[in-house]
Every structure is written in structure tokens, then in C-alpha cells.
Q: What sequence folds into this?
């Protein structure tokens, strides 16, 4: 009986491992930023979702000292879809931020480096997570005193909830886009009729003007 149970749990365990790997892999990215330039990264986040981010500058390749040079500083501003500032840091080498989304849409994280002569290339790692992947599962495990299997099942449950909410969110966005398309098509139809009416009016005025002109010249 025990062997049968373990065999039936094998696909579930494989699925949990794949999901855990996906959640842990989706995050840290490395970017190169030229001094005096700006680089922006966006993430589509729905209302009520938590988002966390960490960033730090990496030492230049071939640098003999682990200490970063003075030219390796970056600034960051995180803004909401409506332009509200959620995080700002200036001339730093590392930092982190966290917020709960109050607006649905694309959140923007813009990094820029001060101008430097000679120009320098600054490499930095940026780990931005939202939704289920933003949750600190180690803290959840410690608080609840649950074992690894229960923790993976909890992750799976929250992932399914997030996917379910994401489906409804995408459905709402699709309805909004369809409504926008309908309004745009309606406006374009009215604009086409208006343009046609203006063209016919201008053509009529031109014919009237030419008729009067020829009558005055006694050509008609």
C-alpha cells in the first residue's frame, strides 16, 4: 500500500519540483549599463499582488580588488502605471524595494548611471519578483513549523490560486481591449461619414462656384 501511494505521488513531486524550479529561476537578471545612459525594465502586475526587488552592482571583470570603483554607482526609480513613485535611490551600489500593487498594469523600474569620463560600463544584477514568487517561503515554513512536503503543497496551492486569478485578470483585460476596439471602430465609422460629408460639401461648393463663374462669363 505504501509503495502504491509513493508511486502515485511521484508525478506530483515532479510537478512540484518543476514549479519550484520555475519560481526560483524566474528573477535574477544581469544587465550592462553605460555611464550617462538609462535602462528601463517593466513588469505587468495586477492589483493586490506583492512585488519585491533586489539589485546590486557586480565587480568589473578582471578587477584586482573586490571594492567597486567610484564610477560604479547607479540610481533607480520604480513607478506605477499612472506614474506614482514607489521607490527611489540615487548613486547607490545595492538596494531593495517592496510594494503591494494598487494599480493594474505595467510597473516600470528605470536605472541610470551618472555621466563619467572616460565612459564606463556598469554591470548589475536585478531580481524582480511578483505574485507567488515574491513570497518568502522560508519564513512561512519557520512560522508554521511545516515539513518540506507540506511547504511544496502550499506553494502549489498558491501557484494554482495565482494562475486562477491571472486567468480572470487576462479575461478582464481582454474585455477591456474588446470594448476599446468597439469604441474605436465606432468612432472611425463616424469619422468616415463625417469625412465623406465634408468631401461632398466641398465638391458641391466647387460646382456651385464654377457654375456662377461660367454664368458671369456668359459661357453657359
A:
Amino acid at each position: 500500500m505504501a509503495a502504491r501511494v509513493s508511486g502515485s505521488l511521484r508525478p506530483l513531486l515532479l510537478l512540484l519540483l518543476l514549479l519550484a524550479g520555475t519560481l526560483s529561476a524566474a528573477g535574477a537578471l544581469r544587465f550592462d549599463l553605460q555611464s550617462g545612459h538609462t535602462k528601463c525594465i517593466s513588469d505587468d502586475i495586477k492589483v493586490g499582488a506583492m512585488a519585491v526587488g533586489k539589485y546590486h552592482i557586480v565587480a568589473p571583470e578582471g578587477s584586482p580588488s573586490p571594492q567597486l570603483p567610484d564610477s560604479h554607482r547607479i540610481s533607480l526609480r520604480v513607478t506605477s502605471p499612472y506614474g506614482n513613485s514607489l521607490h527611489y535611490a540615487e548613486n547607490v551600489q545595492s538596494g531593495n524595494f517592496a510594494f503591494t500593487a494598487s494599480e493594474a498594469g505595467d510597473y516600470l523600474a528605470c536605472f541610470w548611471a551618472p555621466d563619467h569620463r572616460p565612459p564606463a560600463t556598469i554591470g548589475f544584477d536585478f531580481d524582480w519578483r511578483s505574485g507567488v514568487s515574491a513570497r518568502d517561503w522560508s519564513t512561512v515554513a519557520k512560522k508554521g513549523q511545516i515539513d518540506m512536503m507540506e511547504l511544496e503543497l502550499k506553494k502549489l496551492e498558491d501557484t494554482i490560486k495565482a494562475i486562477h486569478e491571472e486567468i480572470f485578470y487576462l479575461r478582464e483585460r481582454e474585455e477591456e481591449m474588446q470594448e476599446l476596439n468597439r469604441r474605436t471602430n465606432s468612432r472611425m465609422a463616424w469619422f468616415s461619414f463625417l469625412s465623406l460629408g465634408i468631401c461632398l460639401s466641398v465638391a458641391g461648393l466647387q460646382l456651385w462656384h464654377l457654375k456662377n463663374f461660367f454664368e458671369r462669363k456668359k459661357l453657359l
The first strand starts at residue 28 and ends at 34.
